[in-house]
Design goal:
This protein starts with 14 loop residues before the first strand and ends with a helix. The mean pLDDT is about 85. The chain contains 7 helices and 6 strands; from the N terminus they run E-H-E-H-E-E-H-H-H-E-E-H-H. The protein is elongated, with a radius of gyration of 26 Å. A hairpin with a 6-residue loop joins strand 3 and strand 4. The strands form 2 sheets. Strands 5-2-1-6 form a 4-stranded parallel β-sheet, with helices on one face. Strands 3-4 form a two-stranded antiparallel ribbon. By secondary structure, it is α/β, with parallel strands linked by helices. Helix 1 packs across helix 4 and helix 3 crosses helix 4.
């Protein structure tokens, strides 16, 4: 255990176990940085390193939103002229699945002298197994639920069959994807009735 946490003072600290399976990288990293800084404690002080140790499992099952697997780039420089190297998140994940989450958390920690000490408290493992399973201070930590507003239809056609939009063609182009099958059929019937007879 001492080899795993070399150079880390763990006296009085908890070990938070986090399951990263199906978690969004950015949202998870933001929560982990709060724990590493100790901001969730009543005795938080920005000049003290009293954050808990964070043990992350299933890091290879994290997810990105949108097209970030192909569009997000990780860059570093070799130090030689023209030595700028870059790789996509997909290639970075293939090289080391834990590095994506580690870089995200490290970038969210304050840029000061405590940054490296706080980052050493973050232990990331790609699978379920980790060397802290029998640690007496290990506590399961749950990701807070996301606040998602319920999706509602922007507009619904009234059930009254006599209802007709002022401009059925413009209405169809704008709201077709929001209508159910019965509403779509009703708009098509209105357009057929209003079509000029040849």
């Amino acid at each position: 255990m001492s080899q795993v946490l070399k150079g880390v003072q763990t006296k009085g600290l908890q070990f938070r176990l986090v399951d990263a399976k199906e978690q969004v990288v950015g949202r998870l990293a933001a929560q982990l940085s709060v724990i590493l800084q100790g901001k969730d404690k009543v005795d938080f002080a920005p000049h003290l390193d009293n954050g808990d140790v964070v043990v992350v499992k299933n890091a290879q099952h994290v997810v990105f939103t949108g097209k970030k697997w192909k569009q997000k780039l990780y860059r570093h420089h070799t130090g030689f002229p023209g030595g700028l190297k870059e790789r996509s998140a997909e290639l970075q994940f293939q090289k080391d699945p834990t590095e994506i989450l580690r870089k995200a958390v490290y970038g969210m920690l304050p840029k000061n002298k405590l940054r490296d000490a706080r980052a050493r408290k973050l232990r990331i493992f790609p699978n379920e197994g980790h060397p802290f399973e029998k640690h007496p201070q290990l506590v399961q930590w749950e990701m807070p639920p996301r606040k998602i507003r319920p999706s509602k239809d922007f507009y619904e056609l009234p059930d009254d069959e006599d209802y007709e939009p002022m401009n059925p063609e413009a209405y169809r182009k704008r709201f077709w994807h929001m209508m159910n099958a019965a509403q779509q059929q009703r708009i098509m019937d209105i357009l057929q009735r209003q079509a000029p007879k040849s």
